[in-house]
Design a protein that fits this description.
The protein has about 500 residues and is of the alpha/beta class. The protein folds into 2 domains: about 110 residues, Urease, subunit C, domain 1; about 375 residues, Metal-dependent hydrolases (TIM Barrel, Alpha-Beta Barrel), CATH 3.20.20.140. Helices cover about 30% and strands about 25% of the residues. Helix 6 packs across helix 7, helix 7 packs parallel to helix 9 and helix 13 packs antiparallel against helix 14. It starts with a strand and ends in a 14-residue tail after the last strand.
Length: about 500
């Protein structure tokens, strides 16, 4: 008689916490790993048995930075091996409602949200953030929140953040780079709140109007960690540090050596993606970054921005319009070197910054079906980040070995959240009692296929993905009716 729900037989099994790297049979019961037999075991019998000989079995990839909410965009991530996709940089203004909606709609992978500093700041400034499906993008360029807060407004914003933390928010998302006017004292007050609540901040650092802004933006985060004792996380260190990445790596490394809780993430692309109305995409700000309007592609029309006049027009008429920006030019050998070195520090997690899908019509309210039809645009990182790391950084460039890359995609992000979310202690691992969130892939063929022109093409070489013990990808095919994703909440 079968003893287990599922047995995965004969894989090269990699557990980054125990340094296990051996051929194993792995048994699953419900949402939990129930046995790991090194060398295999005929005693493990499953109601379903999957032959994975010659393939790698790893913990499911954990994405700390995903802005995907709808099924098609989350499905693209699942096809890239992502079993947990969290919105930690931007966050939510009503975390309880966000969890309710996600559970009601069903998700192919696990989900979770931070509390949104930016949107709660907008609310404190009098903006009606409850009436919009995406208040941050709607008000991204609104002058009402681009100013210093009064004492009363700061208190209201902090009270709002505290309430969201009690509702299970996974820390505080701080889009500081989108509000240069916020005072240093305000940022420190947010960090103090995080320290008092034993949680973390996830910061998009701010640019400070000079060519080497990356180092100063990171220094503000490290200073906050020193001043408050809070866990401070730097989002997408590749795109905010750009050509200052070597100095930022040294700064963060020295801070960690002194016991500061400063963590980082990066994605393996030279281009970023955000609303075209962001402050750092204003024409004057571009010059400090060595950029010009032609480095911006406006996705609702697919156009490269032709001039300063056209950029100002788009920023005025559609500030939340999604744009892809070439912060580093991947065709330039020097810029490519900066991008590669974004992953040099051992504690840097892989995180995608996955973006919403833009319909061919440009109308963001238009529902997108699965499979995603031609003409839909986004950043290729939505569909290809994790496979790209394994294909490019491991197989082609040899910048890290397979076990280390898997650690960056699994255990490192799990450990960044280990003191915030109890569930994360069971993720990012292949051990008895760990969550049965798993990815099976061929290390010789795993490949990202999404490009800037065709960004929704799914990755290949991933044979199986299991979330909470349920297959969501089987033999390379997405199971569209599988929605086993569960909420990941902060500790109460």
């Amino acid at each position: 008689m079968a003893d287990h729900d599922i047995v995965l037989r004969g894989s090269r099994t990699i557990d980054p916490e125990t340094n296990l790297d051996a051929v194993c049979d792995v048994a699953l019961d419900g949402a939990t790993i129930s046995a790991v037999a090194v060398g295999g075991s005929a005693d493990l019998v499953g109601r379903v048995e999957i032959d994975v000989v010659g393939l790698v079995l790893a913990p499911g990839f954990i994405d700390l930075h995903s802005h995907c909410r709808d099924y098609p965009s989350r499905a693209l991530q699942v096809c890239d091996g992502v079993t947990t996709a969290l919105e930690l940089e931007g966050g939510e203004v009503d975390v309880a409602d966000a969890y309710r909606r996600a559970e009601s709609e069903g998700s192919p992978n696990h989900f979770g949200f931070s509390a949104s500093w930016a949107v709660l700041r907008m609310a404190a400034c009098g903006l009606d953030v409850r009436s919009s499906a995406d208040p941050f993008m709607e008000y991204i360029g609104d002058a009402n929140w681009h100013r210093e807060l009064t004492r009363a407004e700061t208190s209201a914003m902090l009270d709002g953040l505290g309430k969201e933390l009690t509702e299970g928010a996974l820390g505080i998302g701080v889009l500081l780079g989108y509000c240069q006017e916020a005072s240093a004292a305000e940022y420190l007050s947010v960090a103090r709140l995080a320290a008092e609540q034993s949680t973390a901040t996830f910061t998009h650092v701010r640019e400070l109007s000079r060519p080497d802004s990356g180092i100063f933006g990171a220094a503000e985060v490290v200073t906050a960690a020193l001043a408050t004792g809070a866990h401070m996380h730097i989002c997408h260190v590749n795109s905010t540090s750009t050509r200052s990445i070597d100095n930022v790596n040294e700064l963060v490394g020295r801070g960690r050596d002194q016991g500061l809780a400063v963590t980082t993430e990066a994605y393996p692309y030279g281009a970023g993606c955000t609303g075209i109305g962001a402050e750092f995409l204003a024409p004057d700000a571009l010059t400090y970054q060595g950029l010009e309007p032609g480095d911006i592609r406006y996705l609702p029309t697919g156009e490269r921005v032709s001039s300063v006049e056209r950029l100002n027009q788009l920023r005025a008429t559609d500030p939340g319009g999604i744009a892809v920006i070439d912060f580093l030019r991947e065709s330039d050998p020097d810029d490519l070197g900066y991008l590669m070195r974004a992953f040099l520090t051992a504690g840097t997690a892989v995180a995608s910054d996955a973006m919403p899908l833009v319909p061919a019509s440009g109308d963001m309210t238009e529902p997108i079906p699965w499979p995603v039809p031609p003409g839909v645009l986004t950043h290729p990182r939505t569909a290809g980040t994790f496979s790209r790391v394994l294909r490019w950084y491991v197989r082609e460039l040899g910048l890290m070995d397979l076990s280390e890359a898997i650690r960056r995609c699994t255990l490192v992000p799990a450990d960044i959240l280990r003191d915030i979310a109890p569930d994360m202690a069971r993720k990012g691992r292949i051990q008895v009692g760990a969550d049965a969130d798993l990815v099976v892939f061929d290390p010789e063929t795993i490949t990202d296929r999404a490009t800037y022109d065709e960004p929704t093409v799914t990755s290949t070489g991933i044979h199986h993905v299991l979330v909470a013990g349920m297959p969501v990808v089987r033999d390379g095919a997405l199971l569209v009716d599988a929605r086993p994703g569960r909420p990941v909440r902060g500790a109460e």
